[in-house]
Automatic annotation (TrEMBL):
Protein name: Mutator family transposase
Similarity field: Belongs to the transposase mutator family.
Coiled-coil annotated residue ranges, if any: none
The UniProt record lists the keyword DNA-binding: yes
Reported function: Required for the transposition of the insertion element.
One annotated GO molecular function: transposase activity
Pfam families: Transposase_mut (PF00872)
Organism encoding this protein: Microvirga lotononidis
A biological-process GO annotation: DNA transposition
Keyword DNA-binding: yes
């Protein structure tokens, strides 16, 4: 009988497999390769190069085996031993229960929750047991690969930088706490989006954002002209300190949500809708003109909102300095919503991570997948528009 608690995980895995088979192929291949290596280690009772009196034989190269799966053809290197006694049962079990094994591998990739849980699921679905140390080794190799992505050198300039954070529940020391996942996305001069960094932090403090941004700088981040982010005091202070040369665009979507804090609960008129329309104007001059009309219309009814908006709204108009073709993409952090939706969909399965490392593993894995999709897609922005816009500004200044 299937445990009802497993249904959300099963549904998420099925959805992942049906929607992103190409993205999973390399992960499935890598994990299956690790499983073959783990089988050989268990059979010989020794790791590669390990000297021990208890070892039962020696490795002797590989032969290639192609496996046709639901996620495509996998080219695997099957280890051999000198005496020719090693024989993997993985392929036979895979052919008998292909979908179940792919689901298991997907869960190892997607959840990264605990070696015990993965071991139990593998035994139940595949009839094959892997030791906790073997599963930990697989996760370590995944972590090493993801860490290489997260620490790669940023060789090119990124004129646009988008920063955001989300919170996930993590169990540390027996206590469940919300921890921040800091995310940075850059747009290069080819107009392509790239995920530049994903890091964990206890909270969104000035020091955590400062450390995050300094890490990007140390990896080569340069040429930032505009930063799009929410209005968070710690984040803004870190931007001023580390990216002082960049203009700051406060996300207008978050600004409109914050406006609700300055309205009575039962406000049901067009006040906020008219405020939102200011961000569809052709120029900052039009926006400011209509802002004056909006203030005159609503200041008697909502003086608290009007006072707050007059003090803070100008920093949401920074995007008007950009070419008009870029406005809709850079007046908010909405370009991160697709990534955040994917993260939410996967973290819903886990609910509470056993540690920060497992949370970081999942989010970084999803970030790598999204990053590669972005690089393969058509460019997000035409940066020739920005170059021409700069030339026009120089001509006007002259």
């Amino acid at each position: 009988m299937t445990n009802s608690k497993d249904k959300p995980a099963a549904a998420a895995i099925k959805d992942l497999l049906s929607q992103n088979p190409d993205g999973l192929r390399e992960i499935v291949r890598a994990v299956m390769q690790e499983m073959l290596e783990a089988e050989m280690t268990d059979a010989l009772q020794a790791e590669k190069g390990e000297r021990t009196a208890s070892r039962l034989g020696y490795r002797s190269g590989y032969y290639t085996r192609t496996l046709v799966t639901r996620v495509g053809k996998l080219e695997l290197r099957v280890p051999q031993d000198r005496d020719g006694r090693f024989s993997t049962e993985l392929f036979e079990r895979y052919q008998r229960s292909e979908q179940a094994l792919v689901a298991t591998l997907a869960e190892m990739y997607v959840q990264g929750v605990s070696t015990r849980k993965v071991k139990a699921i593998t035994e139940e679905l595949c009839g094959h047991s892997f030791s906790a140390s073997a599963i930990s080794s697989i996760n370590k190799r995944l972590d090493d690969s993801l860490a290489q992505f997260a620490s790669r050198r940023l060789e090119e300039p990124f004129p646009y930088l988008i920063l955001d954070a989300r919170y996930e529940k993590v169990r540390e020391g027996g206590i469940v706490r919300s921890q921040a996942v800091l995310i940075a996305v850059g747009i290069d001069w080819d107009g392509r989006r790239q995920i530049l960094g994903v890091e964990m932090a206890n909270r969104e403090s000035q020091s955590s954002w400062r450390t995050f941004l300094l890490g990007l700088r140390e990896r080569g981040l340069s040429g930032v002209e505009l930063v799009v982010a929410d209005d968070h005091a710690g984040l803004r202070a870190a931007i001023r300190e580390v990216l002082s040369e960049a203009a700051y665009q406060r996300c207008y979507v978050h600004f409109l949500r914050n406006a609700l804090d300055h309205l009575p609960r039962k406000a049901d008129d067009d006040c906020l809708q008219e405020l939102r329309w200011l961000y569809d104007r052709r120029s900052v001059e039009e926006a400011r003109r209509d802002l004056s009309a909006w203030i005159a219309k609503w200041e008697a009814r909502y003086p608290r909102l009007i006072a707050w908006a007059e003090e803070t709204i100008e920093e949401t108009f920074t995007f008007y300095r950009l070419p008009r073709q870029h406005h809709k993409h850079l007046k908010s952090t909405n370009m991160l919503e697709r990534l955040n939706e994917e993260i939410r969909r996967r973290t819903y399965v886990v609910r509470i991570f056993p540690n920060a490392a497992s949370c970081c593993r999942l989010v970084r894995a999803l970030a790598v997948e999204m990053h590669e999709n972005w690089l393969e897609a058509h460019r997000y922005l035409n940066m020739d528009d920005l170059k021409e816009h700069k030339k026009d500004q120089l001509r006007q200044a002259a």
